[in-house]
Specification:
Blueprint lengths: L1 H17 L3 H10 L6 H12 L6 H17 L3 H14 L4 H13 L3 H14 L4 H14 L3 H14 L3 H14 L3 H14 L4 H14 L2 H14 L4 H13 L3 H14 L3 H7 L5
Length: 275
């Protein structure tokens, strides 16, 4: 009898050990189930958030995830409400500020985006990606070259990786500032990732701004060969060809690029590079 009771207790314990924690299952469905439809994940997050025993960090993580998913579903107001609630639940969560910053930037509110990514930097002062994100806001949205380069310098000090050098090259090349340093940055990036079409495109622009048209053509040409969808490089190759006196070839490239993206002429004019 005693042996039977022990066997029963062991079997019960084993069954309990194998039974999934329902709260953990909801968390997994909310945050980790990448194969689920976004609406199903939102529902899982909502069920998980109904648990009053979640820690502030757990609640913030789930709210950020639900906000991200709601953006996928074009539920913009609900997404922003989730990001707001995440920050209210756990004001020390840098990720919540990062996501809300991205939300504001996508919706054209650069100032709020800047405020939020700056808050993320205060919370995570050694996260290079946050400085890179803020540099992008300064560069692309606020036309503040000095602050953009300062942030890229910090980002590179923290993480001297290829794409960071490329980003600093790109900012300098677009702004026609410190072009010798821009070229050095792109060379460094391409030393680390020689076959990157994006990095070749950046260096092509730096060469073009320096008046090094043969080198610009070579880089843009290599970028297009790496990725035929690089319409920016196709237009740049056309400009380089024009400056080399290869008018027919250059016009053909530029026309082909404009058929795919009619804004490229305006973009390059913004770099000071009209045909």
């Amino acid at each position: 009898m005693r042996a039977a009771l022990i066997a029963l207790l062991l079997a019960t314990a084993a069954a309990c050990a194998q039974s999934p924690d329902p709260v953990e299952a909801q968390r997994s469905q909310c945050i980790e189930d990448e194969d689920a439809a976004p609406a199903d994940q939102v529902a899982a997050c909502t069920r998980y958030l109904a648990n009053a025993k979640l820690s502030p960090q757990q609640r913030a993580d789930a709210l950020v995830q639900r906000g991200y998913l709601r953006e996928d579903l074009d539920q913009e107001n609900e997404a922003l409400a989730d990001y707001d609630a995440a920050i209210a639940a756990y004001p020390s969560d840098a990720n919540a500020y990062q996501e809300r910053s991205s939300f504001y930037r996508r919706h054209g509110d650069a100032r709020r985006a800047l405020t939020d990514i700056s808050a993320a930097i205060r919370l995570q002062p050694n996260a290079a990606s946050n400085y890179g994100a803020r540099a992008t806001i300064y560069d692309e949205d606020l036309a503040d070259y000095a602050h953009a380069i300062a942030d890229m310098n910090t980002a590179i000090d923290l993480a001297p990786v290829a794409y960071m050098f490329n980003d600093r090259c790109w900012i300098r090349a677009k702004a026609r500032r410190a072009l010798d340093l821009a070229l050095a940055d792109c060379d460094r990036a391409l030393t680390m990732a020689p076959n990157s079409a994006s990095f070749l495109d950046s260096r092509g622009l730096a060469h073009l701004q320096l008046g090094e048209f043969e080198a610009a053509f070579a880089d843009f040409n290599a970028a297009v060969k790496q990725n035929e969808h690089m319409t920016h490089s196709l237009y740049g190759r056309g400009l380089a060809a024009l400056r080399l006196g290869r008018t027919e070839e250059g016009q053909a490239d530029m026309q082909a690029a404009l058929q795919q993206n009619e804004e490229l002429a305006q973009v390059y004019a913004g770099y000071g590079l009209a045909p």
